[in-house]
């Protein structure tokens, strides 16, 4: 069903604009997210070239995915020596490379390992596809995006419009939980989620959800907010040591990459919540509604009117977000 929706949306885009094909690279393509995300990108009609990169295992994944009868020419790349070729002239780079959480860990506990992985990959992006839109999935997103920004700055290749932390899974979760609780049709629900991508920095704005549910109490909204904030932990606990969300993340990652591709292709009014360099709060990076254009971020939208509950949550998250952003910046600057 998702594939049909994705195909329909992309076909609409093609009909409205002069379509061209795009190269998408997935880094970490042999992993739990990377494999299904690669498959979903193979099914996207705007993709004509699909590069699947990992430190190992990608020849098999690519051989498998390449048999799907869609247009994207699919190739696997394995190991450092093939990273440059995988990235060469890519239009969109999706990064789910790195280790996932185990029960009891925070996303920040992944910083030491994933920070180094992301730094190396973004250096290669700067050298091989500096104009690509970067879709950062690797955790901790609150810090890996600032790491990427500093790496690109050091290489003289930073364009803030093209660097995105993927927070779409938070939106997907908020929509699902809200629709279930309010008894609404899930596919018709929209919920903006702002802030960052860890614990209290994830802030769903249920007061701005559509359609408006009249049957939810303040206690319901509090429970929905906490469930959205803890959605990742819920999956980590259920997987009991076998990693974190992969399938729902691949879906969310493919949705966000599709939005980037449609915007690149000239489709208008593409609005997504995403974590970008931002001036709308005191945090230098912040997720909010963003209109995407051919060159990436076109307009960063303000937060609109917040309830007292949402405002208090916003005020509470900013120091944590600022700390996690600083940690990412210091990681590169101090290196
Ligand atoms: P995984 O372990 O299944 O896969 C990660 C892949 O990355 C592996 O195949 C590994 O070989 C590869 N990898 C490691 N170092 C690499 C390098 N230098 N270059 C290329 N590939 C490399 O993990 P997963 O479940 O797919 O999760 C990946 C990351 O995504 C984790 O950091 C996780 O926390 C994060 N994540 C983010 C969100 C989000 O909402 N942004 C959601 C879920 C997971
Ligand atoms: C998620 O939200 O599912 C991801 O960030 C993975 C995690 O560690 O929770």
TrEMBL record:
GO terms for biological process: malate metabolic process; tricarboxylic acid cycle. Its EC number is 1.1.1.37. Residues 23-165 form the Lactate/malate dehydrogenase N-terminal domain. It comes from the Eukaryota. Residues 167-331 form the Lactate/malate dehydrogenase C-terminal domain. It catalyses: (S)-malate + NAD(+) = oxaloacetate + NADH + H(+). Substrate binds at residues 101, 107, 139, 173. The keyword Protein biosynthesis does not apply. NAD(+) binds at residues 28-34, 54, 114, 137-139, 249. Keywords: NAD, Oxidoreductase, Tricarboxylic acid cycle. SUPFAM superfamilies: LDH C-terminal domain-like (SSF56327), NAD(P)-binding Rossmann-fold domains (SSF51735). The active site is at 197 (proton acceptor). Homodimer. One of its GO terms (cellular component) is mitochondrion. The lineage of its organism: Eukaryota, Viridiplantae, Chlorophyta, Mamiellophyceae, Mamiellales. Belongs to the LDH/MDH superfamily. MDH type 1 family. This is Malate dehydrogenase. It comes from Ostreococcus lucimarinus (strain CCE9901). GO terms for molecular function: L-malate dehydrogenase (NAD+) activity. It is an enzyme of class 1 (oxidoreductase). Transmembrane segments: none annotated. It holds the Pfam family Ldh_1_C. PANTHER family: MALATE AND LACTATE DEHYDROGENASE, MALATE DEHYDROGENASE.
